[in-house]
Amino acid sequence: MNLSRKPEADKTARQRGTHSVEERLNSEIVQMLEMDGRMPFSEIAQKLGVSEGTVRNRVNAMKEAGLLRIVAIADPAASEYKADAMVCLKVAPGITPQKVAERLSAVSSVVYILWVTGRFDLMVELVCDEPDDLALFLEDHIHGVEDIVDAEVMLGLKNFKNQFLLKRNWEQGASK
Q1: Pairing, β 83-91 against β 110-115
Q2: Model confidence, pTM
Q3: Which of 20, 93, 167, 173 falls between 20 and 30 A from 35, CA-CA?
Q4: Are strands 122-128 and 110-115 parallel, antiparallel or unpaired?
Q5: Do 86 and 154 form a contact (C-beta atoms < 8 A)?
Q6: How many whole angstroms separate alpha carbon 83 and alpha carbon 163?
Q7: CA 173 – CA 176 distance, rounded (Å)
Q8: What span, in angstroms and rounded, lies between the C-alpha atoms of 79 and 40?
Q9: Taking a C-beta distance cutoff of 8 angstroms, is the pair 138, 153 a contact?
Q10: Helices (H), 65-153
C-alpha cells in the first residue's frame, strides 16, 4: 500500500482549488458590476453560468466583508464641466496634510485629494462648472489661507485616460 500522500494534504489541495474558483467567480462578478453597477443578478448569473442566488450571496458576502461597495460616480468628462485642474499644495509648518485635506474635502468641486511625497504635500483635483468657479475656489480656499504656504495650479487641457471613472468608455473609445 502506498501512503505517500496524507488525507490532510488532499483536503488542503482541494480547498485551495475551490478557493481559486471562488475568487475567480467573485472577480468576474465584480468586473460585470464595474461595467454596470445596476446589472441584474439574473443577467450576471446567466452570463457566468451560475444561479441568481449564487450571485446574490457572493455580492452580499463581499459587501459584508468590506470588499465591495456599489456606488454611482459622475463622469466629469461626460458632464459639461468647463474647468478641470490639479492643485499641488505645500502645507504650512505645524499643520498636518490631513487637516488641510479634511477642510478641502467639504468643497463640492474637489473630487480627489492625495497625500504625496516630494516638493508638495497634497495633490487636489477639482472640476468646476465655469472657469470663474476655479478662480473663486483658489481665492477662497487656497491663496491667502494660513494652512497653505505654496500652491501650483495646473489647468487640465485634455483628458487622455481616466482609469477610475472612464474604464468602460476608455476601452470603447480606444477602438475608434
Answers
A1: unpaired
A2: 0.53
A3: 20
A4: antiparallel
A5: yes
A6: 19
A7: 6
A8: 26
A9: yes
A10: 97-105, 131-137
pLDDT in tens, 79-133: 555 668 899 999 999 999 999 999 999 998 898 899 999 999 999 998 887 778 8
The DSSP bridge partners found for residue 115 are: 122
**Cα 96 vs. chain centroid, distance in angstroms?**
24
**Residues 142-169: tens digit of each pLDDT:** 998 999 999 999 988 877 766 655 434 4
From CA 165, how far away is CA 159, in angstroms rounded?
Answer: 12
The CA-based diameter of the chain, rounded to the nearest angstrom, is 84
pLDDT in tens, 8-66: 444 444 444 455 778 889 999 998 988 888 899 999 999 999 999 999 999 999 999 98
Contacts of 142 (CB under 8 A, 6+ apart): 87, 89, 148, 151, 153
* Single-letter amino acid, residue 78: A
Side-chain-side CA neighbours of 161 within 13 Å: the count stands at: 5
83: which 3 cell numbers? 474647468
For residue 50, the one-letter residue type is: V
* Ranges of H-type helices in 36-158: 41-48, 52-64, 97-105, 131-137
Task: Please give the pLDDT value at position 171.
Answer: 41
Spatial CA neighbour of 130 closest among 55, 65, 80: 80
Edge to edge, the sheet with strand 110-115 lists: 110-115, 122-128, 83-91, 148-155
